[in-house]
């Protein structure tokens, strides 16, 4: 009667269940990240933040979501319809797709391809299309400027983001994220790869357009930048994609530099791998918010200059040194 | 000076002018404010202004104000040359004010008499470039034509305005005298079309041979425009090739209102000129009237006035500080500064009963005495603020990103500042030590121990640092007020003090009658002209009042600092980038109500 249940089918079934659980977890975390950001910003800015709906204002996210679903889905008559709709979908789906490769525990994770890190870099490169298309299709000058800034910024930062991560790859000898995490047993990459980490942090901020790299949507200059003309759920998708991006990039930082599911000094790594991973990810998510609370926004050309004059040389030096050390250890 | 305002000695500048151009050219007019006021024929205007600006010993580098008076209904003119309209030029010589030894204030008022319904006279934009907007304003509101003006068009009123020139005496002052306003769909489209920017009208090119420029409408609704302010940018990428500021979206006709409010009931309107300045706005108005009426206020009044205006300087500068940080992208400081402002407003509210618009100064005094326990409230604020300022310096002003955004950006030197009529922190950031509280002390400022903070580069950063330091100096002044508050009455014992002193009203009928008339109709100020300049929160603010012997003003001219500051924008920002413009706008620290009145 149950003959058709083969082990392969079961594996597929559990794989799908895992993926759905992770997807839901990610979206819910991203949504609550909005609440977290508002509460933390408020804490650091001497105010209360949302504290009325439900305990600690936790219901605020649900209320906001209900509101945004019922908002009029207005499309500017001068916009390029197809691209205008496509852009927010791209933004959200690409950021979620990038999360596929994140290893959360030795066994949990949606997929585990051998070239996971390369996939991530490819997707980070594609993500700029969402912003660029959104800015261009809105047919509004502020949106266009936002889109252009985003493109220029991505070009500058993609270059050394890849290079900054190559040190990690060299050290682990693999592009597979799970193996990279496993290789950090005992020594987290952040120590040997400190230069790579320093270059990665601004690049990671730039990928998700967070302060001080939020030039594409600099509200004091470009109103809302590339999503000025968006409203309702399409705006909501851009917004959620930003927070999904933060969760994803925080998780990636943990996986690449902070030992993923490893506890500090190997403490309880076997017992609570997921909790370690989650706690570290949470720490980086909160730091994103702290950065936003603390820093002003540099000018566009200053950001470019910083990318080419500081980050690129740092990542090149890092790559050189790591390469030399790896070769020396291999006894070549 | 004699009691009627006639100068007993002839001011230096009048002597110098007579020596240069001959005695017969000028007619000297006595005014209540003692400012040298000369009438001259329109044909010689250019020659005289040019000499004053460039050749005069200690030249008059700044055109401080330019306005007009519709003289057709004025009764008391006391031997002034016959005129239907008068154009008034007020010049300011910072050099004379700062000269040592200083012999007289560096003010000069020149008047030109014009005949006819819509008179013409030559523009002076070729002598003083900042006359541009002032002349547009005079044309817009009076219909006086300035021949040779580069772009004589509406500035306060919309380009489609059909209602004539409102400051003319035949123009109605009340909305009830017009048909109700209706905005039909057709009219709305027409009005919007009228606002479409046409680069050719401003002598701009739409592009070069290789590419087109982008024309970006920044405002009237934009997060960083600080009110209803519109800037049209000609962009090459993100670089600003040129820009055209467009004002008037906040124009409420405050000057016209002065002509039908009583002297007393106009005070609340002044509050709303620089709406962040609160009682700071009342000060030049009531001081000008006190000069006209010959009221000498008690020491306690002076001290209370100094204290309250310094409180408003602090709240205004704090708002600047916060929004400036926000405009360069720092999100948090503004929230902290709003907390501090609230602490200051707590004190202000306890003393005046209101927060932002107390309308609390009166002709000849203040509205009521300080409340019991005010010392403790003020002390609490003085204890609270300095530590916070130190924190902000660490968190905001010393931040390297903020410095990179503002050091050497949008800089201008003292000469440029004077050329464009810049006053206040914007002038002092260029290193020019010109603060009216020191140069021409009023309200007893000479008795206070405080410094005038100066910058030296005249860039965005210096303007911010100067203001931050001014907050500290204001705290020093307030502390001295707190420690040395004189006792005594809070109103002058004078017939024109408003509302009048009431103690004797129930004892003799004459006092009761005068009291009744003064409260119901308002005081009657003696005919004459008066003005007063104060170092307000954003620069020099002054009221020029023409009294014609009635219960209200014949002409109220409000010279605000923000108006010339905005006019200067294109000359400073050409060749810089959009984010620089945003930071620059923030560093000007203007409110549109102060620009448009």
Uncertain stretches of 5 or more adjacent residues of chain B = 1-7
What is the H/E order of chain A?
Answer: HHHHHHHHHHH
What percentage of residues of chain B falls in helices of 4 or more residues?
Answer: 25-40%
Can you give the mean pLDDT of chain A?
83
* Number of DSSP E strands of chain B: 15
Number of helices of chain A: 11
Radius of gyration of chain A, whole Å: 21 Å
Spatial gap, N to C terminus of chain A: 61 Å
Estimated share of beta-strand residues of chain A: under 5%
Largest sheet data of chain B: 5 strands, mixed
Descriptive report:
The complex is a heterodimer of chains A (332) and B (597). Chain A is an all-alpha fold and 332 residues long. Chain A contains eleven helices and no strands. Chain A has helices spanning 7-44, 60-70, 81-99, 116-137, 141-172, 177-182, 194-207, 219-222, 232-257, 273-294, 300-330. In chain A, helix 3 packs antiparallel against helix 4, helix 7 runs antiparallel to helix 9 (232-257) and helix 9 (232-257) crosses helix 10. The radius of gyration of chain A is 21 Å and the shape is globular. The mean pLDDT of chain A is 83. With 597 residues, chain B is of the alpha+beta class. In chain B, 39% of the residues lie in helices and 14% in strands. Chain B contains 21 helices and 15 strands. Chain B has helices at residues 12-21, 45-55, 94-98, 131-142, 185-194, 254-258, 267-271, 279-293, 299-327, 333-352, 374-397, 400-406, 414-419, 425-428, 436-439, 460-483, 509-520, 562-567, 569-573, 578-588, 592-596; strands at 27-29, 37-39, 62-70, 85-92, 107-114, 120-122, 145-147, 214-218, 230-236, 239-246, 361-362, 365-366, 528-535, 540-547, 553-559. In chain B, the strands form five sheets. A five-stranded mixed β-sheet of chain B has the order 1-2-5-4-3, covered by helices on one side. In chain B, strand 1 (27-29) and strand 2 form a beta hairpin. In chain B, helix 9 runs antiparallel to helix 16, helix 9 packs antiparallel against helix 20 (578-588) and helix 10 packs antiparallel against helix 11 (374-397). Chain B is globular, with a radius of gyration of 24 Å. The two termini of chain B are 33 Å apart. Residues 1-7 of chain B have low confidence and may be disordered. Chains A and B meet through helix 5, helix 8, helix 10 and helix 11 of A and strand 8, helix 9, helix 10, helix 12 and helix 20 of B.
């Amino acid at each position: 009667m149950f003959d058709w249940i083969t082990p392969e089918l079961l594996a597929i079934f559990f794989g799908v269940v895992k993926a759905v659980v992770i997807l839901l977890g990610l979206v819910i975390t991203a949504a609550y990240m909005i609440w977290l950001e508002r509460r933390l910003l408020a804490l650091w800015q001497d105010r209360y933040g949302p504290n009325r709906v439900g305990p600690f204002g936790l219901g605020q996210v649900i209320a906001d979501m209900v509101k945004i679903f019922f908002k009029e889905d207005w499309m500017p008559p001068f916009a390029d319809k197809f691209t205008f709709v496509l852009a927010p979908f791209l933004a959200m789906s690409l950021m979620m797709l990038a999360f596929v490769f994140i290893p959360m525990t030795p066994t949990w994770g949606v997929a585990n391809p051998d070239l996971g890190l390369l996939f991530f870099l490819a997707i980070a490169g594609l993500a700029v299309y969402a912003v660029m298309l959104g800015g261009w299709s809105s047919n509004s000058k502020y949106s266009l400027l936002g889109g252009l800034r985003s493109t220029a910024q991505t070009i500058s930062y993609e270059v050394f983001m890849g290079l900054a991560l190559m040190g990690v790859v060299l050290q682990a000898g693999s592009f597979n994220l799970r193996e990279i995490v496993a290789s950090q047993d005992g020594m987290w990459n952040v120590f040997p790869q400190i230069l790579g980490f320093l270059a990665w942090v601004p690049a990671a901020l730039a990928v998700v357009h967070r302060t001080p790299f939020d030039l594409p949507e600099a509200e004091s200059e470009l109103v809302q930048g590339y999503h000025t003309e968006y409203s309702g759920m399409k705006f909501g998708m851009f917004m959620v994609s930003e927070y999904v991006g933060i969760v994803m990039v925080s998780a990636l930082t943990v996986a690449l530099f902070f030992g993923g599911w490893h506890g500090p000094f190997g403490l309880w790594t076997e017992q609570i791998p997921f909790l370690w991973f989650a706690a570290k990810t949470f720490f980086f998510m909160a730091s994103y918010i702290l950065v936003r609370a603390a820093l002003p926004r540099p000018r566009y050309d200053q950001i470019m200059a910083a990318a080419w004059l500081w980050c690129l040389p740092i990542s090149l030096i890092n790559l050189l040194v790591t390469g030399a050390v790896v070769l020396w250890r291999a006894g070549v | 000076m004699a009691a009627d305002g006639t100068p007993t000695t002839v001011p230096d500048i009048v002597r110098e002018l007579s020596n240069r151009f001959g005695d017969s050219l000028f007619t000297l007019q006595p005014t209540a404010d003692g400012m040298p006021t000369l009438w001259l024929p329109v044909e010689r205007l250019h020659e005289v202004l040019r000499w004053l600006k460039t050749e005069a010993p200690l030249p008059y580098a700044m055109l401080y104000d330019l306005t007009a008076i519709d003289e057709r209904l004025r009764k008391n003119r006391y031997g002034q040359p016959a005129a239907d309209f008068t154009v008034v030029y007020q010049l300011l010589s910072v050099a004379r004010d700062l000269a040592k030894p200083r012999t007289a204030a560096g003010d000069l008022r020149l008047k030109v008499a014009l005949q006819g319904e819509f008179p013409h006279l030559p523009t002076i934009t070729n002598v003083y470039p900042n006359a541009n907007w002032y002349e547009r304003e005079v044309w817009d509101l009076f219909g006086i034509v300035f021949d040779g003006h580069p772009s004589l068009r509406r500035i306060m009123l919309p380009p489609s305005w059909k209602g004539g020139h409102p400051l003319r005496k035949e123009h109605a002052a009340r909305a009830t005298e017009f048909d109700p306003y209706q905005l039909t769909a057709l009219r709305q489209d027409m009005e919007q079309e009228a606002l479409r920017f046409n680069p050719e009208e401003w002598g701009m090119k739409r592009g070069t041979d290789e590419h087109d420029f982008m024309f970006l409408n920044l405002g009237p609704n934009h997060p960083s425009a600080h009110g209803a302010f519109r800037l049209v940018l000609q962009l090459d990428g993100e670089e600003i090739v040129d820009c055209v500021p467009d004002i008037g979206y906040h124009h409420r006709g405050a000057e016209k209102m002065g002509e039908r409010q009583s002297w007393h009931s106009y005070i609340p309107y002044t509050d709303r000129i620089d709406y962040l300045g609160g009682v700071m706005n009342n000060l030049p108005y009531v001081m000008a009237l006190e000069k006209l009426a010959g009221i000498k206020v008690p020491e306690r009044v002076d001290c209370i006035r100094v204290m309250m205006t310094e409180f408003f300087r602090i709240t205004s500068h704090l708002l600047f500080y916060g929004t400036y940080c926000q405009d360069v992208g720092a999100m948090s400081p503004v929230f902290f500064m709003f907390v501090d402002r609230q602490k200051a407003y707590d004190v202000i509210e306890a003393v005046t009963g209101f927060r932002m618009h107390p309308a609390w100064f009166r002709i000849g005094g203040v509205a009521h005495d300080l409340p019991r326990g005010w010392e403790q409230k003020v002390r609490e604020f003085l204890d609270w603020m300095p530590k916070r300022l130190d924190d902000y310096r660490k968190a905001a002003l010393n931040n390297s990103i903020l410095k990179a955004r503002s050091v050497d950006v949008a800089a201008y030197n003292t000469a440029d500042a004077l050329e464009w009529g810049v006053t206040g922190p914007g002038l002092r950031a260029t290193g020019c030590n010109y603060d009216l509280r020191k140069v021409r002390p009023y309200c007893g400022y000479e008795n206070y121990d405080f410094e005038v903070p100066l910058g030296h580069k005249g860039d965005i950063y210096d303007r911010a640092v100067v203001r931050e330091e001014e907050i500290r100096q204001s705290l020093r002044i307030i502390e001295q007020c707190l420690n040395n508050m004189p006792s005594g009455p809070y109103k002058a014992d004078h017939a024109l003090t408003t509302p009048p002193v009431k103690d004797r009203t129930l004892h003799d009928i004459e006092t009761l009658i005068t009291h009744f008339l003064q409260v119901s109709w308002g005081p009657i100020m003696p005919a004459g002209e008066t003005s007063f300049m104060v170092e307000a929160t954003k620069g020099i603010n002054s009221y020029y009042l023409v009294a014609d012997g009635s219960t209200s003003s014949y002409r109220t001219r409000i010279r605000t600092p923000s108006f010339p500051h905005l006019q200067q924008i294109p000359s400073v920002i050409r060749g810089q980038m959009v984010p620089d413009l945003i930071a620059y706008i923030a560093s000007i620290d203007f409110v549109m109500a102060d620009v448009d009145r």
